[in-house]
Amino acid sequence: MKNIPKLSMICLGLLFSCQSKKSSTSEQNMQNSTMQDNQTVALSKKSYGTTPDGPADLYTFKNKNGMIVEITNYGGIIKSIIVPDREGNLADVNLGFDSLAEYLSGNPFFGALVGRYGNRIGGAKFTIDGKAYPVLANNGVNHLHGGKRGFDKYLWDANIVERNGSPALLLHRISADMEEGYPGNLDVSVAYSLNNDNQLSIDYTATSDKKTLCNLTNHAYFNLGGHDHGTILDHEVRFNAEFYTPVDDGLIPTGEIASVEGTPFDFRTPTKIGARIDSDHPQMQIGKGYDHNLVLKHEAGGGAIQLAAVVYEPSSGRVMETYTSEPGVQFYTGNFMSGKVTGKGAVTYPRRGAFCLETQHFPDSPNKPAFPSTLLEPGQTYHTTTAYKFSTR
After folding, report:
1. 247 — phi, psi (to 5°)?
2. How far apart are CA 324 and CA 253, in angstroms?
3. Which residue from 65, 15, 83 is spatially nearest to 365, judged by alpha carbons?
4. 313 has which bridge partners?
5. Pick from 110, 137, 124, 120: which is nearest to 291 by CA?
6. 237, 309 contact by CB (below 8 A)
């Protein structure tokens, strides 16, 4: 393990326990299109337009606090996340579009369910059991977010189901053998749920009939001041991370696990996103800001969701806590937003108008043997959970 300090080796030992675990999930399909639990979490469905693969629907969660989450089964896209500020005023903190047609015509992964491999694979190729698998180079010479048609561009089967007495949206599809160059028929289910603690949970499960890669995430773009707030430079962030993975000029990890100490990546105490985003640190110059994987300081045990990050927006008082069972999170600060995209309510989204917390295994893990593995074998079940919890202070 070249260039990995001793402390990082300990960290990696903990991370290996966070790899996908076997699990079993049973779901009860609901015959009606609306379900409400005894604690007033409601989930309803309505038509959202037509895709090349058929009609899409929009599913709306609403809890007793007035929090609203809208999700479409086209691409598993989170369309809206509407939460109160410290005065009780509601605002949508998730960037996106109003219409399905806008998502179809060119979406920079707003709210998208990403797969079969979230983030980048260096050189657009990987090897399993000595066999090379080339995949599409759609990010320079590298592969990004599943290829030309990743999971975000498919119409998923959808059902409203009951989980632990509450409604959930269960999405399902089978990614065919060699779809976008990946081996194996991958059977994927993703469940979205909302509770009365203002927590949106995403539960990912997959199996395959051949050895393959699996690294699923969601690419929601957040601005806790509201999607029309402007930049996110005033947001304060704290990460439960002592290490990060430095990248090369193509944003592919070098393989090093580096300490955040003395770098712009040290968010162990709350720090404004804008405080060091234009630093002359070489890594910040490469990413034009933050576009890096942080190595989460998770306790050993594997599988349980643990705190990854806390984000606070001072003008609204909104707080978002991110919990995950994944070993890493990609912190992206909208550096490549063009400033020309018109989103919901005819709002033009500026550069650095949002941040993303893409929970994940590390980028380019298939080509970095020292990283936690993303290999999924027949007989195994990939299962990870991420949750975003909103509050105020």
Report:
1. -125, 165
2. 21
3. 15
4. 318
5. 120
6. yes
Averaged in consecutive runs of 10 residues, what is the pLDDT profile of the chain (393 residues)? 36 40 37 51 97 97 97 98 98 98 95 98 98 98 97 98 91 98 98 97 98 98 98 98 98 98 98 98 97 91 85 98 97 95 97 98 97 97 98 97
Instruction: Map tokens 């962030």 to a residue.
Output: 237
Angle at 140 between CA 134 and CA 145, to 5 degrees: 65
Give the chain's length. 393
End-to-end alpha-carbon separation of the chain, Å?
43
109 is written with which tokens?
């992964």
Output the pLDDT for position 36: 52
Between CA 288 and CA 246 the distance in angstroms is: 14
Report yes or no: 112 and 218 within 8 Å, Cβ to Cβ: yes
CB 105 within 8 A of CB 178: no
Q: Are 216 and 207 in contact (CB under 8 A)?
A: no
| Cα–Cα distance for residue pair 217/293, rounded to 1 Å | 13
Sorted by where each begins, the domain ranges of the chain are 6-392
What is the three-class DSSP state of 14?
Answer: helix
Annotated active-site positions, please? Answer: 219, 358
Q: What angle do CA 274, 276, 278 make, to 5 degrees?
A: 85
Distance CA 199, CA 365 (A): 29
pLDDT in tens, 181-228: 999 999 999 999 999 999 999 999 999 999 999 999 999 999 999 999
CA of residue 42 relative to chain centroid, distance: 24
What is the dihedral angle through the alpha carbons of 270, 198, 94, 316, rounded to the nearest 10 degrees? -50
Q: Return the amino acid letter for 142.
A: N
Q: Which fold has domain 6-392?
A: Beta-galactosidase; Chain A, domain 5 (2.70.98)
Residue 285: φ, ψ to 5°: -70, -40
